[in-house]
Structures are given as C-alpha cells and as structure tokens.
Amino acid sequence: MRQRLIAIDLDGTLFGPGGGVSAANVRAVHAACAVGHRVVIATGRSWRESLEAREALAELAGADEVLVGAGGAMLSALDDGRTLERQPIDPTLSAAVAECMLAHGHPAQLLQDPDTAGCDYLIVGEDLDPTVRWWLDRYRQRTRTIAAVPEGEALVHTVRVGTVVASSRIGEVARQVHAELSDRLTVHHWRAVAPDPDHPDPPELVEVFAPRVSKWAMLERLCRRWEIDPADTVAIGDGVNDLEMIESAGVGVAMGNADPRVIAAATRHTASNRDNGVAEAIHAVLDGRW
Question: What local confidence, expressed as pLDDT, does residue 62 receive?
Fold first, then answer.
C-alpha cells in the first residue's frame, strides 16, 4: 500500500453543522492512520482555534504530527502548537490593509505567530463585531488592543489581517482591498463562523495573507518533507480557501455542502458535513475505490 497524505478542512467539512467532530469521522481518521496514511488538518483557523478537532483527534497528536493553519500561513505541531513554519505578511502591506479597514470604520484583527509575538491577536481599533468578541472568548485568545496601526517591528509577526463585519456593511472595504491589494496579497471574502448561523444580517470576513499563501502550498512542503508524491494526496473541503488544494491534490473531494466552485473543481464528491462526508470519503480511499 502506498502512503497517502489526507488533508481535511474543518469548518463545513470535519466539523458538523453545530461544530464538533462526529464519532464516525473520528473512527475513519483513526482507521486511515492505522494503515499508514498521514492525516493532516488543513484549516483557516489557527492552532488554538482548532481546539475541538485537536481534542477529538488527541490520540494522533504525536511528536511528528502537524496542523496546517491560518489558510496555509502557519504550520504548527499538533500536540503543543509550536510554530514550525510561518508565512508572514510584509509589515508595510499589513499596515496598509489595517489602515484600509480602519478608514471604513472597521477594526482590524491581526493574527500573530504566538511563539514570537507573545499574543494570538493584535487588535487595532474599537467596537469589535459581537462575533469577534464571541470568538476571542470562546478560544481564550491572548490579545493586545491598540488604537492606531503600528509600524516596523510590531507587525513582523503578522500572518493574517482580517475584519469581521455584518454582510450589509462589508461590501466597500471588501471591494477596496480586492482592488488595491489583491495583486500583492492573497485575499479571501466569505461568511464568518458565528454563534447564530441564522442571523438576518450574518457577519462576513475579509482576510488577507502573504502572496501565494494557500493550504496547498503548505501541503506541498509536507509532501517533500515526508517523501510523499503530491499525486498521492487526498484533499477534502468545502470552502473557497480549499479550492487550490481540491484542484491540485491527486484526489480532490468536495463535500455535499461545498461552495459551487469547489464542487465544480473536485474529482470526487462525498456527503455533506451533516452526514459524515469525511468518513464516507476516507472509507472510499481505504477501500481502494478512490
């Protein structure tokens, strides 16, 4: 049996609609690891924000297991969160993005490399969206709040700059960030994870990374490290930040609840996250069907 790297997204994929990892998905991941495959979480969340997945898969958290986080901008040790690799944003560009967000009246949340910055988020501005406050409290994020965008050394630890705003108010800043910075940075705009998924004006997220940052780029580096042919990769996901790994993996699997662009790009399709689509996909790999 050839060893394969199986990369699994979290929100909308391994996590069910209400969050958390089902017993069926946990059993499937364990079965894949038991026969020698390398299973890697590949998420837009940071290591700290991936708590539920880490707890569910705690038995896999050996010294050599990793988590691809922040959309590929961070590689962390799965067991203790040590930063193994990072792709920081140029401080000048981080400042430009944060200034743009502040100019539209939206505070900026700058995700940091916690090993070097000593905090998880640098918050610039005030009046955080309630969703952001809920998120920071839920994962006990260590934050530092300042009124104005700093310069130089204060931004060298930043791997992502984002803002979360109600969908009715985020359009202008999203358009400006895309128009002025998408040629120099990786930009995503999508719905944010929120405590109330049925909110009439749901929060959306604009987030910015260094150029060419993606889950797939980090997975390629893992393939070289572990001497796995990139053709022997399986990527399972649902969202726009999964698109490149779905297109590039040997087997790209779209969840039943995936974004239409992901569904179109995938070579294989599985059930939704409500119906244990990850377990279904892994069993198809283990059975030799995929």
Answer: 64
Within a 10 A sphere around the Cβ of 52, how many other Cβ atoms? 16
Q: Tell which residue, 5, 7, 2, has the closest CA to residue 235.
A: 7
Phi-psi category of residue 40: left, alpha or beta, with phi > 0 → left and psi -120 to 50 → alpha: beta
The residue type at 92: T
Q: For position 61, what pLDDT does the model report?
A: 62
Give residue 123's Cα distance to chain centre: 19
Q: Supply 2's token pair.
A: 């050839």
CA proximity to 164, closest of 200, 123, 119, 198 = 123
First to last CA, the chain: 13
Domains and CATH numbers, the chain: 5-86+213-286 (3.40.50.1000), 91-209 (3.30.1240.10)
User: For the chain, what is the mean pLDDT?
Assistant: 95
Can you give the length of the chain in residues? 290
- Please state the rounded mean pLDDT for residues 145-156: 90
**What's 15's DSSP letter?**
B
